[in-house]
Write a structure and sequence with these properties.
This protein has twelve helices and ten strands. With 393 residues, the chain is of the alpha+beta class. A five-stranded antiparallel beta sheet has the order 1-5-4-3-2, sandwiched between helices. It has a five-stranded antiparallel beta sheet with strand order 7-6-8-9-10, covered by helices on one side. Helix 4 crosses helix 8 and helix 9 packs antiparallel against helix 10.
């Protein structure tokens, strides 16, 4: 989901030095007295920007929107990945800028290829946090060579599904990019239903225009672990045949459309009060604790109780609550199953700011919201799930 965009706010977040370079290279706002402006006095910049032609205003706004999208933990992680892969000799230059928006604008001005692809990958990562992002694995762990024919075959497969079933998607353009991690990204753009839109002309007049806009499907194949993640709007009747079509066109493999995601999770062993949430020393974790647990009686799987611990209490509080509940119900832990667990990881402090935390949830059979975290945090969380025996490998 796109972040809120406030043009004045993003202008304030970018240093005047970089804004001057940005507009000067575009041949715009050349009359701005840059040396007389304070870093937050952006009204003269904003007003002159609004006095540009419609095409110029729109172009600048699109670039600033990308800067806005990348200027957070997730976006900067993707940008660092792309710069490190494509321009390793320039990493020190971008890290020299302290502000997040400055790092991103510097990348736009100096390493445009990394900026453009980071914006695209960050957009895909944002989709991964939504309800339409699906994952499966068990696919061949083999590298692929992407050819024009492969992209053409994938486009034909997309069209072959959408046009007869939904009367849209008659045309499909497939773009492919390989991320620094080795993941293969395929963006399939298809023409949507025609629609009337109210639009403003340069004169300020509003008119009705009929257009066929594009909608997007995203497929991400990871050869290292044989997994496929994809963004496709619709239920099983849509995403199941499309993942089959992707695997046939790109991997040359026929797969079962209902193959479940493996591994699933196991949580019952977390009922043991003596179980330790170990951590990798390299992750600099000060504490990992369970802050919430959903218990489901095995004899009545549709009912459950959810216990929540006080974040300021002792790490063992959740198990004290479980023992109290079982005692009240005259029940034993063996009669319960754990359906969902909330975790909270606290990292070691650097002494300058509050320690970072990583809250996340795991639910049976195979749901986990780590995918909505930054790449760094997601990697640490997934490593912990393996150490804690939660992942069924």
């Amino acid at each position: 989901m796109a972040k809120h965009f406030d043009p004045r706010k993003i202008l304030k977040q970018i240093s005047n030095q970089l804004l001057k370079q940005f507009f000067t290279e575009r041949g715009e706002l050349l009359d701005i007295p840059w040396d007389e402006l304070t870093e937050t006095k952006i009204e003269p910049i904003f007003e002159r920007w609004q006095n540009l032609t419609e095409a110029q205003r729109t172009d600048v706004q699109l670039i600033l929107q990308h800067v806005n999208e990348l200027a957070d933990d997730r976006g900067l992680s993707v940008l660092a990945e792309e710069i490190g892969s494509r321009f390793p000799d320039r990493v020190a230059e971008v890290t020299a800028w302290e502000a997040r928006a400055d790092k991103v604008m510097w990348a736009y001005l100096n390493v445009r290829e990394a900026f453009d692809e980071a914006a695209m990958f960050a957009s895909a990562d944002a989709l991964a946090a939504g309800r339409y992002w699906i994952k499966r694995n068990g696919l061949p762990k083999t590298a692929i060579t992407v050819s024009p024919k492969m992209k053409s075959d994938l486009g034909a497969a997309m069209t072959g599904f959408y046009w007869p079933n939904q009367m849209r998607g008659l045309h499909c353009a497939v773009e492919h990019y390989r991320r620094a991690s080795g993941a293969e990204y395929f963006f399939a753009y298809l023409d949507d239903y025609p629609d009337h839109q109210l639009v403003f002309e340069d004169s300020g007049q509003i008119v009705k225009r009929s257009d066929r806009y594009a909608f997007e499907n995203v497929f991400v194949f990871s050869p290292a672990d044989g997994s496929l993640e994809f963004f496709v709007r619709g239920g099983k009747k849509v995403y199941q045949p499309l993942q089959v079509a992707f695997c046939r066109a790109v991997l040359g493999a026929d797969v079962d459309p209902t193959d479940p995601l493996k591994p699933a999770y196991r949580l019952d062993h977390l009922l043991d009060p003596n179980f330790q949430l170990r951590a990798d020393p390299g992750d600099r974790i000060a504490e990992a604790r369970i802050v919430r647990m959903r218990l489901e009686p095995k004899a009545a799987p549709l009912s459950y109780i959810e216990l929540k611990a006080d974040l300021k209490g002792h790490a063992s509080e959740i198990h004290q609550m479980i023992a109290h509940y079982l005692n009240e119900q005259n029940a034993s832990a063996s009669r319960m199953r754990v359906g969902q667990v909330g975790f909270r990881i606290t990292f070691m402090s650097d002494g300058r700011a509050k320690p970072k935390t990583l809250p996340f949830n795991v639910s049976l059979p195979s749901s986990c919201d780590l995918k909505s975290k930054t790449d760094e945090m997601r990697t640490i969380g997934e490593r912990c799930l393996k150490l804690w025996g939660i992942v069924n490998e």
